[in-house]
Amino acid sequence: MFRRQFLALTGAAVALPAMPAFAITEAGAERLVNTLVADINNVIASGKSENAMFRDFERIFARYSDTSYISAYAMGVDGRRASSAQKRAFSDAFQGYIARKYGKRFREFIGGRLEVKGVKRVKNWYEVETTAFLRGEAPFAVTFHVSDRSGKDLFFNMFIEGVNLLLTERTEVGALIDRNGGNIDAMISDLKKAG
User: Fold this and answer.
1) Contact status, residue 106 vs residue 82, Cβ threshold 8 Å
2) In this structure, which of 2, 96, 155, 168 has its CB flanked by the most CB atoms within 10 Å?
């Protein structure tokens, strides 16, 4: 299962709504992914405690991903009835949840690497295709979608072997909302402890 989740910290949403004029470049998209991967690898190799690594992974997620879009997608239709304060609280809790949930798996990435294999323009964003190499695993595809809809180059989606990881998280968040009887504040409270 790890091979389908190891990078979800960095991960994702589906199609973007209409965007402003196209300004992102192929080189910018590739540079973002290369820098993201280098930062993840530096944390993994740091020898820090697990909790310190989780804090670093949370900062990486906040720095390289379109967190507002990803959080809104993960919350789904329940976001329509959430207040602005609840949306902000959810976004913060979601970042921590992603860092804890997937950060626990990053130890398995020690000694591994990701290599950019190609970049292509798709509509108003770029798709950055990479190959992941982990010890004891067959190489597998990881694809990032990168846009500048937020005003700077950030990734908004990620697929591992064709699997959209945010769809998994949207299902998890929806189940958490259901378990809390639709109570968004209770869901956020539980999300802060999840992962």
Assistant:
1) no
2) 155
Q: Considering Cα of 73, then 78, then 82, then 88, what sign does the dihedral take?
A: negative
Place of tokens 């992941």: 132
Q: Is the peptide bond before 52 cis (omega within 30 degrees of 0)?
A: no
Residue with tokens 């991903």: 65
Find out whether 26 and 126 touch, Cβ atoms under 8 Å. Answer: yes
How many helices (H) and strands (E) the chain has is answered by: 7, 5
Q: pTM for the complete prediction?
A: 0.78
Render pLDDT for 41-91 as a digit per residue (tens, 0 to 9). Answer: 888 888 888 888 888 988 998 899 998 888 999 999 999 999 999 999 999
Domains of the chain: 2-12+24-193 (3.10.450.710)
CA distances from 168 to 72, 111, 160 (A): 14, 27, 12
Q: Answer for the pair 130, 141: CB distance below 8 angstroms, yes or no.
A: yes
Q: DSSP state, 101?
A: H
SS3 of residue 80 by DSSP:
helix
Q: Is the dihedral of CA 42, 92, 169, 77 positive or negative?
A: negative
Per-residue three-class SS string for 58-104: HHHHHHHECHHHHHHHHHHHHHHHCCHHHHHHHHHHHHHHHHHHHHC
